[in-house]
């Protein structure tokens, strides 16, 4: 079902955006377990990422918020497609680490958002990450591939039926360019998962790697995005500070 839905995602993106996929995942990585870590810029970017995975011949299982699994129809599809539920801000959120680790042990590819939410940074740069993904990567000793994306925020607005319909309608006419880039794996080999602060250091490296790949996608918008969604709230409370 998931491979079929990847084809559907590619066809959903086609009328509202021009998808450009760059970078590659080497064969040696494709043959084993991998975590794909992507920046989160808007409600449409999971569709764009899925379409990009179809182009790149990848089918990673998605780590998604529990709210999607509770939604009518969508929840059933998510479960049937084998995606992984993350119950944020709930007592059993730690159980998701075991589920993802087991999936990786079985050789699965998994994709998630280390920021844990759509970025609220005014410049739309990746925010400070949560440590869950890094803890999983260190525990399972699997490579983490940064995935940078840009342009999906122009396709659909932050929230609400009205703004979403208006921006999608405009996208049918404009077809903004959506860029997705697969970068080289993040080097976490020197980090001991049992040492204090290792998960945070690994998280910072992952966010740094995503940010570095994103720079190349938005050369014409180095500071602030050209398109500003008037509905999206802004915050600098979780601004990421690149490692020196």
Question: How would you describe the overall organization of this protein?
Answer:
There is one protein chain. The protein is an alpha/beta fold and 244 residues long. The protein is 38% helix and 15% strand. The chain has helices spanning 2-13, 27-30, 45-55, 66-70, 74-80, 95-105, 132-140, 161-174, 198-217, and strands at residues 18-23, 34-38, 61-65, 84-86, 109-112, 144-150, 177-182. Helix 6 runs parallel beside helix 7 (132-140) and helix 7 packs across helix 9. The model has no long low-confidence stretch (mean pLDDT 90).
Topology:
Blueprint: H1 2-13, E1 18-23, H2 27-30, E2 34-38, H3 45-55, E3 61-65, H4 66-70, H5 74-80, E4 84-86, H6 95-105, E5 109-112, H7 132-140, E6 144-150, H8 161-174, E7 177-182, H9 198-217
Parallel strand pairs: 1-7, 2-5, 2-6, 3-4, 3-5
Antiparallel strand pairs: 6-7
First and last CA, distance: 44 Å
Biggest sheet: strands side by side, in what order? 1-7-6-2-5-3-4
Approximately how much beta-strand content do the residues carry?
Answer: 5-15%
Quaternary structure type: single chain
**How would you sum up the major sheet?**
7 strands, mixed
Mean pLDDT: 90
Count of helical stretches: 9
Q: What is the approximate shape?
A: globular
What Rg, in angstroms, do the CA atoms define?
17 Å
């Amino acid at each position: 079902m998931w491979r079929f839905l990847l084809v559907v995602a590619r066809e959903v993106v086609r009328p509202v955006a021009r998808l450009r996929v760059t970078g590659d995942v080497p064969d040696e990585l494709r043959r084993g377990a991998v975590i794909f870590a992507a920046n989160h810029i808007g409600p449409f970017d999971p569709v764009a990422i899925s379409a990009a995975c179809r182009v790149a011949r990848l089918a990673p299982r998605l780590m998604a918020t529990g709210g999607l699994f509770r939604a009518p129809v969508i929840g059933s599809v998510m479960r049937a497609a084998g995606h992984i539920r993350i119950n944020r801000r709930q007592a059993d959120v730690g159980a998701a680490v075991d589920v993802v680790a087991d999936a990786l042990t079985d050789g699965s590819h998994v994709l998630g958002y280390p920021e844990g939410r759509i970025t609220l940074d005014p410049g739309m740069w990746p925010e400070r990450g949560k440590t869950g993904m890094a803890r999983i990567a260190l525990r399972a000793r699997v490579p983490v591939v940064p995935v940078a994306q840009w342009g999906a925020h122009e396709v659909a607005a932050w929230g609400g039926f009205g703004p979403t319909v208006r921006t999608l309608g405009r996208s049918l006419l404009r077809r903004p360019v959506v860029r997705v880039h697969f970068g080289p794996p993040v080097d976490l080999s020197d980090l001991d998962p049992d040492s204090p602060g290792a998960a945070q250091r690994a998280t910072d490296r992952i966010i740094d790697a995503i940010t570095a790949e994103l720079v190349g996608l938005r050369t014409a918008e180095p500071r602030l995005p050209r398109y500003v969604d008037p509905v999206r709230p802004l915050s600098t409370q979780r601004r990421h500070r690149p490692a020196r």
